[in-house]
Amino acid sequence: MWKTIIRRLLLMIPQILILSILIFILADFMPGDPFTGLVDPNLDPAQIEAMREAYGLNDPLPVRYVDWMGDALRGNFGRSFNFQRPVTQVIAGRLGNTVRLSIVSIILTYAIGLPLGILAGRYNESILDKAVLVYNFVSFAIPTFVLALLMVYIFGYNLAWFPARGSVSVNANTTWEVFSSQVYHVILPAITTAVLGTTSIIQYLRSEIIDAKVSDYVKTARSKGVPIQKVYTRHILRNASLPIASGLGYTIVGVFTGSIFIEQIFTYSGMGYLFLQSINTRDYSVIFVLVLFYGFLGLIGTLLSDLILMAVDPRIRID
Amino acid sequence: MNLMAANQDAEAAVLSDNMAASTPPMGFKVISREFARDKLALGSLILLVVLLVTIFIWSFIVDQDVVTTVSLWDSYLPPMSFSEDPAFEGTRYILGTDSAGRDIFGLLLIGARNSLTLGWSVTVVTSIIGIVVGILAAYYAGMVDNVLMRIIDFIMILPQLMIIIIFITLVPSYNVFTFAGILILFNWHGQARFIRGRALTVGRLDFISASKTMGTPSIIIMLREMMPNISSLIIVNLTLNFAGSIGLETGLTYLGFGLPSGTPSLGTLVSYATNPDILENKAWVWLPASALILVLVLCINYVGRALQRAADAKQRLG
After folding, report:
1. Mutate which of B174, B178, B182, B254 to test chain A, going by most A C-beta atoms within 10 A?
2. Is B294 at the interface with chain A, CB within 8 A?
3. A222 and A181 share a domain?
């Protein structure tokens, strides 16, 4: 197991390097530079040139890449031109919001998905099962931004049950007020994310339970006199949750990545919103670190998923 | 009752023609039976065809120049109101107007046509690339397969949406074709992986080995022997990906990284909703487009599911 983990971690290094080189080249191609929009007309071109020189923007691409990598390995990811702060600080400032939204979303995803999947599987062909199938189909097919807009429009504006914008109220002063306001702001985007996230959970649970119901081990347990409720909790659910476990790795790393659509529509200032802001202000250093961060998390997610699958199902061996 | 009658009919057909009993139902017959059994799928198909025909025919009848003419008199008129611009005296805006006084209904038709055309083109091209790469990888296996799969694995780890947005912002001459090209560049790999998986199974079958031994050229084996065996999956995938492409295009256009402003899309209309005032108080601008996207995507997906069941004998309803 440890051998596998170390081998996989080593294999990740070239992938991250290729990704970083690719993004670095792309960032270099972007039209304009961070000074184009900010330049004060009183500043003379020589000064701009001096600023470009000072930021190292005039060096050849490979030199800049090696410089950047050297700094990055020492924990210095450069400065954001737009926020005039180190990139790590800018990202750290947004990470909290995204993590809060993700955690609430995950809790809601399971709170909706598990019972619906179990009930639909246990009572399949019932009215409830049919309703769950319809819900599942719609939540699978609907584009993220359409659902998010409808949610904002209905629950944010028309019914005004939840705040439609932002991540915290400006009027919140005490720690408690800030916290409760943050939770209040998180609910609507979290429900939206959760609805979109339940599809695979329900799908897998339902079909696994339907398959398991007629399997031999369930018949054996029943004929030995195990109560039906116990057969479900002890036998069927345990086996039926295997496919869900395989996606758990992505769920865990997903805590740190925010959805671009959800955060844009709810003007929720997390990682996805930061990415859009940085694209619009040509803030390369932030874009670059964000893409690397997402790519790195994707790799870790794959590894974690494989490991979790190995842990819950001893028959599976991954090398 | 219906079910029993249908069964009896089928039995009668089998009894009357012994030859028919030995050949399994194929192709179009299977599909039409599947749709006959699933009324919701049939409804989706009919609705989809009606929508497509209406959108394509009507969008050619409406004059794009008239629709996109700016008239500040008519800015943000609610639905069913008459034009206040003397130049358009007596014009009635069924779905109201946008900020520049353009007819939402006309924009909706033209936008839907553009979104559908682009979505379909992207889907077809990605599918062709996916089929070619997938079959090549499965047929030649070994080194070719390894290299192609490593490339696909690498594309898979990229944060897709972010990379697409970065590419869009840096393309120098940005137009419909470069936009479609970028979407294709980051979407073919899923297709290729899927097709490869299926083609691997087909490639191991005896008749392929027999063909190879007989000296049939590789290209003939791939095109005439492997491809027909996965054709039903290709059709199913084409449908499901079509819905996905429409979602991706309208989503990107909504964010402002999609079709250029000269080419209205359904996403363009929805993107008005980024303004909180329009989102809250002028829903007629963005709501119809959102609803149309939703209906199109749901119908296409539902038809795709029915085709998927028809392609797999174990899942068929009919």
Report:
1. B254
2. yes
3. yes
Neighbours of A84 (CB within 10 A): 9
Asked if A149 lies within 8 A of B162 by C-beta distance, the reply is no
Q: Do B169 and A279 touch (CB under 8 A)?
A: yes
Residues linked to residue B97 through DSSP beta bridges, in sequence order: B103
> Exposure of B33 by Cβ count < 10 A (0-12 exposed, 13-18 middle, 19+ buried)?
middle
Residue A79 lies in a domain: no
pLDDT at B36: 82
Q: Is residue A86 part of a domain?
A: no
ipTM exceeds 0.85: no
Top residue of A145, A286, A303 to mutate, by most chain B CBs within 10 Å, is A145
Confidence label for A56 from pLDDT (cuts 50, 70 and 90): low
Could you tell me if A30 and A135 lie in one domain?
A: no
Classify residue A86 as left (phi > 0), alpha (psi -120 to 50) or beta: beta
Structure tokens at B190: 């899923």
Beta-carbon separation of B298 and A141 below 8 A: yes
- Specify the pLDDT at position B49: 93
Looking at the complex, report in whole angstroms how far the Cα of residue B209 sits from the nearest Cα belonging to chain A.
30
Cα–Cα dist B223/B230, whole Å: 11
Q: Which residue range(s) make up the domain with A33?
A: 2-73
User: Is A310 buried (19+), middle (13-18) or exposed (0-12) by CB count in 10 A?
Assistant: middle
Q: For chains A and B, what is the number of CB pairs under 8 angstroms?
A: 99
